[in-house]
């Protein structure tokens, strides 16, 4: 169904009030998930808001730094709402980068957020390289040909500044995020082909038979996912693999890197722009332009804002209505 963006946002704000989200943070929380929806990340937009809002009342307090040394800091988020705790972690990373040239921040014990792009992009808007990543609450992913899940979906986002807007990449290290599976189960839909496997390691498009997502890129993708796991796990003493048993034991990492400390004191954005322009001038075999990371999402958001509407699954809209009415149990 098509829904007016203003109406969807109003319902999300109403749900935030029903869940006792601090009044000065409600718009920020709602807009974070709405941005994911507008950029075409339906699994991390309104549907995820409806899912995560059930945990909003469980927040215990504001995040705090519990350990730090040089560029590194570790945050106990105290079960804070995901977008709020992520914004705090980004601020800590930016402060570290301003002080010593890099901010390397690990966070645990937080509720989850939607898209990662907002956090890496926020760092890039300060003229830095921004990276955001996290593991997953359970071992939900396996490698191509595998039947035993042993990694999380392990999403990764990076952003860098240009003379125009930052270039932002946001991706899971699996062929499809687990949110696609959860929504397919709720709506009795089918899964995208060759993205999920059953407990025998066979590809399936049946959401009830699927047990894990498949890491992209075969062995190379596995290596990338493994790196993300280390950077969101043992680097900070956080759980990894099957030890990630819940939302509260999920590890998050935010990196802010100042190029001036690496020798690029001036002209950093200009250098990046030159590279991006060269890429955009490249052509595909069919004669079209190469698609930049984040381009499709921005185009999707621009179209939605031009029309003032967003396409929502009927079941997701019903859940949003329930949340706005104070019902955080139905699913």
What share of the residues lie within helices? 25-40%
Q: Count the helices. How many?
A: 10
Question: Which topology of the domain at 1-58 and 282-331 does CATH recognise?
Answer: Hypothetical Oxidoreductase Yiak, Chain: A, domain 1
- CA radius of gyration is 20 Å
Largest sheet: 7 strands, mixed
- The CATH homologous superfamily name of the domain at 1-58 and 282-331 equals Malate/L-lactate/L-sulpholactate dehydrogenase, four-helix barrel
Strand order of the largest sheet: 2-3-4-11-5-7-8
Query: How many runs of DSSP E, i.e. beta strands?
Result: 12
Task: Give a nutshell description of this structure.
By secondary structure, the protein is an alpha+beta fold.
Account of the 3D structure:
This protein has 331 residues and is of the alpha+beta class. The protein has a domain at 1-58 and 282-331: Hypothetical Oxidoreductase Yiak, Chain: A, domain 1 (Orthogonal Bundle), CATH 1.10.1530.10. It has 10 helices and 12 strands. The strands form 3 sheets. A 7-stranded mixed β-sheet has the order 2-3-4-11-5-7-8. β3, α4 and β4 (102-108) form a beta-alpha-beta unit.
Outline the fold blueprint:
Blueprint: E1 2-4, H1 5-18, H2 26-38, H3 46-52, E2 64-69, E3 72-76, H4 82-100, E4 102-108, H5 117-124, E5 129-134, E6 141-142, E7 156-160, E8 167-171, H6 178-187, E9 196-197, E10 212-214, H7 218-231, E11 252-257, H8 268-281, H9 295-307, E12 309-311, H10 314-324
Parallel strand pairs: 3-4, 6-10
Antiparallel strand pairs: 1-12, 2-3, 4-11, 5-7, 5-11, 7-8, 9-10
Helix pairs in contact: 1-2, 1-10, 3-10, 4-5
